[in-house]
Please model this.
Amino acid sequence: QVQLVESGGGLVQAGGSLRLSCAVSGSIFSRSVMGWYRQAPGNERALVASLTSSGSTNYADSVKGRFTISRDNAKNTVYLQMNSLKPEDTAVYYCNAHLRTYPRDLDTWGQGTLVTVSS
Model:
């Protein structure tokens, strides 16, 4: 049973920083594309950043230059460093592990962690 546990959310003032962590139990971490998504009230869940096992990254335009995704394979953990936070970054942030497998890909989600940025 794969589980993802996020931590690091909270309340921060605009311009501040937070680091989110996602610990992955199970054996899929090294083979998965790890991603962070966010969902604000009234909005759909959207990709923030992703990181493949080979180190390729992808960022939403709105966070480029401010957020950095990284992974520690020894600790089965993925991080999201968020700098220069803006009120529009306020959302519940979810960790995702995407594993390409047969007969269908496997997506596993964490429970979410709330990030609130005050103006």
The radius of gyration is 14 Å. The chain has a mean pLDDT of 95. The first strand starts at residue 3 and ends at 7. The CA atoms of residues 68 and 81 lie 5 Å apart.
